[in-house]
Amino acid sequence: MSQITVIGTGYVGLVTGACFSDLGNNVICLDIDEKRISDLNHGIMPIFEPGLEEIVERSHKAGRLQFTVNYPEALRDAEFVFIAVGTPSGSDGEADMSYVEQAVIQIADNMDHPIIIVDKSTVPVGTGDWVADIIQKYRDGHMPKFQVVSNPEFLREGSAVADFMHPERIVLGSNDTEACDRVAELYAPLRAPMLVTDIRTAEMIKYASNAFLATKISFINEIANICESVGANVIDVARGMGLDNRIGSKFLNAGIGWGGSCFPKDVKALAHIAVEYGTQPQLLQAVIDINQTQRRRVVEKLNRMLNGLEGKEIGILGLAFKPDTDDMRESPAADIIRYLTNEKAIIRAYDPEAMEQAKKILPKEVVLCDNPYQVVENADALLLATEWNEFKQLDFKKIHDLMREKNILDGRNLWDPERLSELGFTYVGVGLGKYI
């Protein structure tokens, strides 16, 4: 049993803290957001993540998981301190390290015994050295022994608990092998493949991984756009590509683009690092540009389907950037809605989990509905933006009767084009040439 402190209670911090406590460790999760900590202490979850609430409740009740805003309390007995705060994009795409810096200064100010500091946040290459320098300068050399380890996270929103408990790999990087060995012991019960590197390589692995996955999505979306021009079917193209084990089938689903808290900021940050160190991130920039273009193409398709957008009523299913989360950060649906409202379209929308987030960020004129069928009442078009399971088996005969005009734009290629066409819909997907 180890004493672990996790700074930050977002997706990464809360999942990390809860799962480590579920493995039998004593964990204190710290956040400067007093309301969030108060809610957690009263069993109120700040995020939607399948399986997480049960673990938090179980570990909190058992006394292995605590929540606080107090740094001295959180660090008093800590052997390991995981930094899991946000690193949002700055004005030029760089990672904003202000939250990490605040956390490191607080660690330095309150550290009175040897600890291992673990960078869990996605941070630029060189952050481990930067963290050590801050502590050295802040304490002026008078401090207990400490080591810094990079331990990048590979948690997918919507399956973060499973990803933590059954990881494909654990990456650790440090210039101190003993520190790496001690962090590795925390993960030993998971029996996962482990890669130990120097600290800068570990930091780079995280950025390179996310950038590659974003590249695969942007690539298949560009192929989809070509398919629409030449009359090919991108679903079969992707299937044919994916059967080659050098390529693989994952992340080859054409759609309206990627979003969320990781891909957008990480690709931008890696491109910024490249420029900062004198290299040209041509591919990374193209990946970003294709993703933004994919969202605008949705608006162009709707404009063609409806012969103009002003005054047209459009229903949108799905607002979160992906299923099984309420996260709307960099959501393709949110961007598309803004484009449509700028063109004076009338928007109604529904999402199974993201409605509270939607109220905060969408234009006020957007009507948020209670179910999918309210969305389509008298609509001129229906757009599927997020492929939630509950949208797979909708009553399309009922939808046909409720809609004014029978236009469907399937932004995730979720539905059966033949069936919807037989029901009398004009169906448009992504990269399905014969349906355009």
Structure explained in plain terms:
- There is one protein chain.
- The protein is α/β, with parallel strands linked by helices.
- Helix content is about 45%, strand content about 15%.
- It contains 17 helices and 14 strands.
- It has a six-stranded parallel β-sheet with strand order 3-2-1-4-5-6, sandwiched between helices.
- Helix 17 links the parallel strand 13 and strand 14.
- Helix 9 packs parallel to helix 12.
- The longest helix is centred in the middle third of the chain and has 32 residues.
- The mean pLDDT is about 95.
What are its keywords?
436 residues, alpha/beta, six-stranded parallel sheet
The description of the largest β-sheet is: 6 strands, parallel
Name the shape in a single word: globular
Q: What proportion strand?
A: 5-15%
Number of helices: 17
For the secondary structure, the number of strands is 14
